[in-house]
Amino acid sequence: MMQAAKTLLVTGGSRGIGAAICRLAADAGYRVAVNYVANPDAAETVVRDIEQAGGEAFAVQADMAEESDILAMYEMVDQRFGRLDALVNNAGIVDRKARVDEMDLARFERMMRINVIGTMLCAREAVKRMSTRHGGKGGAIVNISSIAAVLGSAGEYVDYAASKAAVDTFTMGLAREVAEEGIRVNAVRPGITDTEIHASGGQPDRAQRLSGLIPMKRPGTAEEIARAALWLLSDEASYSTGAILNVSGGR
């Protein structure tokens, strides 16, 4: 009997690093659930690309700020694929460049709710499905952090950096918690990457403008980050858990 293809859920999978992860995962044989929050056309483009290449994927809407959305998303994955083998917690936000003394409570709460609590909720639901303790067959989780977690992003996004530092700590703690239950939990820390996220923070030219600060003197590409995530998901990384991999051009 042929083994069913592994299934992967990618949050924030409709663009940037998330879309690159979806496409590479499909090439590697995963069936992919492509999560998006507000742009169904972008998500459907990723799904169509995967299907045209012979893969299987579907788009699923959910806002990482809403637990009810996350639960409904997992129900959709259960109905469509009947199993879950891997999760990439990629969805995240930045905000406008600002000093901490210029930020309001709403910004802090939104940043932490999406980048930290959303990641935790998605991981919780994945563990419920993958852990041998719950009758699952094991699996892998990769959280997308940021090199900002160790650099601090002074004068730009200290709140974002703090949220990603929380993701790092969550990764290490969860990895140890579920290591005996067949689940590996790792993180990728991208450096400055040439994606649309900078425009969402009001700095569309940021990746090129700051390339001089990077030892490699260039921003990364979404595909370079995606390849690191795919390696951590794969059996090639079978003895890696609680690891945080810098993919940052030397920063």
From TrEMBL:
Highest taxon of the lineage: Bacteria
Keywords annotated in UniProt: Oxidoreductase
Gene3D superfamilies xrefs: NAD(P)-binding Rossmann-like Domain
Pfam families cross-referenced by the UniProt entry: adh_short_C2
Keyword check for Oxidoreductase: yes
Start and end residues of each Ketoreductase domain: 6-213
GO molecular function: oxidoreductase activity
PANTHER family given in the database record: OXIDOREDUCTASE, SHORT-CHAIN DEHYDROGENASE/REDUCTASE FAMILY (AFU_ORTHOLOGUE AFUA_5G02870) (PTHR43639), SHORT-CHAIN DEHYDROGENASE_REDUCTASE FAMILY PROTEIN (PTHR43639:SF1)
Name of protein: Glucose 1-dehydrogenase
Family: Belongs to the short-chain dehydrogenases/reductases (SDR) family.
Lineage: Bacteria, Pseudomonadati, Pseudomonadota, Alphaproteobacteria, Hyphomicrobiales
SMART domains on file: PKS_KR
Species name: Nitratireductor aquibiodomus
Database matches in InterPro entries: KR_dom (IPR057326), NAD(P)-bd_dom_sf (IPR036291), Sc_DH/Rdtase_CS (IPR020904), SDR_fam (IPR002347)
